[in-house]
Structures are given as structure tokens and as C-alpha cells.
Amino acid sequence: MTQLNAIMPGGGISRRSLHIFILADCSGSMKIDGRIQALNYAIASITPQLINWEKEQEQAQIFIRAVAFADNASWHIQSPEPISTFNWPPLSHVEKGLTSMGEAIRLVADALSPEKFEPRALRPVLLLITDGKPTDVDQFEIGIKELFANPVGKASIRLAIAIGQGANFSFLNRFINDADIPVMVAENADQIVVKLTAATLAISKMSSIGSDRKEVAEQVIMPEANELGVLDDDTII
Amino acid sequence: MSNISGNSTSGLLYPQVGDEVKMVRTNTSIRIESKVAEGGQGVVFRGVDKNGHDLAIKWYKKNKYLERQYRLIENLTSHSRPHKAFAWPIDIVLHSNVIGFGYAMVWVEARFISLVEMLKERLQPDFRTLISIGTELVEAFSTLHSRGLCYKDINFGNLLVDPYTGEVAIVDNDNVASEVTKQGIKGTLRFMAPELITNSAAPSTTTDLHSLSVFLFYLFMHGHPLEGQRVNVSYTWEPGQNISETTLATHFFGEEPIFVYDPWDVSNRPDYDSPIIRWWDIYPTFFKNVFIKAFTQGLKNPSLMTRVNETEWRSALYKLNDQLSVCSCGAAIFVDFEQSNKKCWNCGNVPVLLFTISTPSGISALSEGFKLTKHHLYRDFKYRDAIGVTERHPSQHDQLVLKNTSNMTWAIEPIGEERKEVKPGQRMLVRPMNMSIGSARIEIYR
After folding, report:
1. The CATH number of the domain covering residues in A16-227
2. What gap in Å lies between CA B362 and CA B375, rounded to an integer?
3. What value of ipTM does the predicted structure carry?
4. Is residue B171 classed as helix, strand or coil in its secondary structure?
5. Which of B38, B109, B213, B244 has its CA 20 to 30 A from that of B317?
6. Which ranges of B355-398 does DSSP label H, i.e. alpha helix?
């Protein structure tokens, strides 16, 4: 008889998947200055931010996958992990490891092939983090070609964070392939978390339908915005 | 205007924690306690005034629109808060050696969560709470519009609710404006009126009414009213077929929107796995018809007459509240007086109606939580003036009692019993009867 305890239908709304692919450099130089630890820390610290963003909006349900690359590239997280229960298994650098960035891009391009990628998903996000340049340049060329020949890859949102002075911008810009979106630069290990935080805000903004990527890049990725500390998705850009 | 774009002696872009900012009109100080959030437009802080009250301070980032924003906020602070749901700008604040400006607003307590977060929870608040959220939202918009203001950009980020009390808090009120302008915030596509998306109109009360209907649809149906099968089949990664999200959104929400339950066009029905299907079935016909109006004639031919306005929403929500009942299986259900054989969404049986109350304003389901109001007696739209409240019987839990919360004595004549009186504060057992309250005649029957 009681209305207060009456049975209600269960909640939930339909949403579309937003797949985020992290491409993480684990080459030998990533041990300098504790870069790899800083990267692990940064990914752990943006997770709550992504969880909050997922809670606040009605469209996207976030899934994470990751590829680690050094002497070769392999899946660090292969099956899509929902952000709500996501736990980042820490990466470690490979002693004197190379930078097989090309192979990493090829792995992701393959996962994005239209027959493997769900049609209802939002455009995926590719986040490349490196402190060097590809040592597998021939693979890099093939990887870029495969990525952009693929409609999902072509439609994806691509961001890159360069750590330190060793990162090569011309390769990263070819990966981003959008003149409006600059490479984010983390001068040192401390800045990795700041850049990754800004990247997360950029992801949330760019994934909102009707957003202007250039405007988001100007607000979030450009130098002035790089001074920002904790970002939140409360305001409209 | 004060010096908001001059030189900063400190070189800082924002006030720091521990700093004081001053409200310009009252010259009172607010101490900055902590940084709460940072976004594209600025930074939000929690501040405390000299009486120890919490306030939220939004400080704008330096940008080329700063002077326009200052005038806009100054204008808003000259209006009193239209409705308690708005976290309204109270006053402009300035800092002695940080350039720029901010404004102080009411602090929204932590019990408020975003509406979309609530809708995603497995356990949903009961229907009376959902109706209360809807009513409060409608009333807030109504007071805003009656003052010639409009919200312009409402989205899920702006709308917070207390899932226990059904109260609403609307934040980011710096998007409110009286001037009709296309500049500044363009709005969030999925909530924008079609004519705004296609750039054929400027933000106004009429465009706000569309956003309000989208919100109410989400609140009661758990999905977007224009996002069905037709939209979903357009999502494809086939080479050469992938159209940009913005192009798709402009098409399906702007140029050619079709309601998922358009009675004349079935092409955009909800997806087979959409939660909308279950929720839509639960509500009575009259309530679904209000949404049909909002998203058929209100979509294609926008005006204050074709869209559902706040008065229509308020009476629809009030009527919905009056049709709430409970099935013998324990599920919350709505009585549909236009569809007598309607099955319970939970057990699939046609529910046995408990009691129905007939008043000068119509028939209602008499269930726990039902409030007899002045509107029932006099049709005077005094929905909030309760003169009787239905409660569970204190000892016999399968029975209901109606408590007289008015200051009038009711005359009741239960079937097969003598005429009796129910004095103010007294409770009567709900059973078939005739009642007189003043000049109003009421009947309770099974």
C-alpha cells in the first residue's frame, strides 16, 4: 500500500561508447627523471576526472584500452575497460628499449577497422605519450597510412603529449594531422599530470557533439591553458 | 564600470585561497576558502562572508568579452532571484590587486547531484519525487520567463537535483539574458530548439520551452525525445558513409527532427533496447499526449502557442501526481482513466483500483501521499494549498486515512453509516462515501 516503498522501474539511460586508446612510450629514456612513474601517476590521477565527467553527461560511456611500446608494441589493456571500474596496471620502462611507435599505431589502427569497431560508438580518442621519435620509421609510415585509410581512424580525435626535449614534433604532428591541434609539451616529469589533465578536458570537450575542435584546442591545449591546475567540466567554452 | 581590464599589480590571473574579494554594492568582504572547479570560462571558489555563510565565487578568465560579461552580470544582480532553484548572481566581486572580476552566488549544497547522474542510478526515486523535480523545474522557468528573461543554454551540467527531497538547483546562471542576442553561448546542441540549431531564430522564451520539454522527457522517460532508430542507423563507419557528428546532430535535432513517438511518423521509434520503451508505457495517455504536442507541432511550428508552456506542464504534472497508485504486486503505477484495461508494468495484470476520489476538478487515484488541495475543490490552481493528506493507517497497514489539514470541518457520509464530522487535525478512514467541504461535493468510491 505504501507509495514510499513501491517498486520502481530500474534507472539507466542509453549512451554511446567513447573508446580512449592510450599509446604509451616505455623506451629506455622513460626512466630519466622518473618519467614512467610520473606517467603511471598521471593516468591514475585523471581517472577520477573521467569518472566525474562520465557521471555528469548523458551521452558517453567511457572505455579505456592501452598499447605500450618499446622494442616492440603490445596491448597493455586489450579489452575495453569501463572507466567506472578502471584500474591502471603500472607500466615500466624497458632498459635500453627502442621506440616502436609505428607498430603501436598499427595495432590501434587494426582495432579501429570498421568491421571490429562498433557503429554506434562516438568517435574514438587516441592519446599518444612519448619522449622520443619512432625508431621504426618504416612501420610509422605504414601505421599512419593505415590509420587514415580507415574511416574510424580518420574520424578519431588524436592528441599527443611530448615529454622533454627529445620528442620529435614532426612525427607527432603527422599523427595528429590537424593544424588546429598542437602537440602538448611536458617540459619535465612533473608536468605530465598537468598536460594529461588538460588532454582529458580536451577529450570531454571535443567529444561533445557540435563542439569546435579548434576553439577547444585554443582554450584548453594552448600555452595559457597549460598553466591550469585542476580542470573541471563545469563551464562552457 | 570598475577597472576590470587594467594592469594587475600582482600579476595573478585569479584570487588565491586566503585572499579577500569585495562585493561592489554592499562593500562587504568574502574570504576565498578553496578552489572548487576550473573550466573554460573561469574558476569557481568557495568563499565565506563575515557572517560565516558559504558563497560560491565564479572568477572570469581574461578574455575579449570581459566587459560585456561584466554588464551582463551587473544586469542580473539587479534582478532579485526569480525562484529559489536558481544559484543566482548576488553581486559582482572585485579584488584589490587582481585584474578582472567575478560574482558571488548562493552555495549549492552537496546533497544536490546532477540530474543525469540520478537517472543513471539503478534505484530511482519514487514518482512523487520525480514529479516534484519536474514541477520545481517548470516553476523556476516560469518565474524566469515571466520577468522577460531566458536561460539560453541549459544542459545537464546546469541542472542539479536532490533525489530525496525533489528540490532543484540551477547553476551557471550567467547564461541568462534579457537581451535577445546570438552572441556568446550558443547552447548545447542536444537541448537546443531546432530553429536555434538551424540559425533561424535567436534564444528566447520559445526556444527555452523546447529545452524544458527535452529535460522533462529525460526526467520521466530516461532518454532523448528525438534519438531513435532513424538516428541510430545513421551511425556507421562504412568507408565514405561516415558523416561528422555535428552534421548528424544538425540534421536530426535541427533540420529534420522526428519525435520517437510521433503518431504520424513511426520512422524514429526508440531502439529495441532503449529504456524509453518501458517508461513511456507506464504513463497515462493524457501525459504522453503532452509530450506528443511538445515534439510534433511544437517542433515544426515553434511559437509560444504550439510549444507546451509552463502552465500546461504544471497542470499536467499535478494531474499525473493525482493518478499515481500502487498495484497489488507492490509496483508504483499510474491509473489511466482513458485506458481502463491497462496492465501493470511489473506483474502484467490489470491492477484492481483501490479508491478513486471525484472532486469538482476531476477524478484522481486515492493512494498514499495523495494531497487534496484547494484546486481540487475550487479549480483555482492553488496546487500547493493542501487541505487533506493521505497517509497509511497507523496500525492497519493495508488501510489508508485522510487527514484534515485545513481549518474547516468536513461533513462525511460513508456508505451505510451515519453522517459524521471530521474536524481540523482529525483523520478519517478512507472508504466509499460522500463528502462536503464548504460548498464542494466529493465522492470516494472503489
Report:
1. 3.40.50.410
2. 10
3. 0.82
4. coil
5. B109
6. 374-378
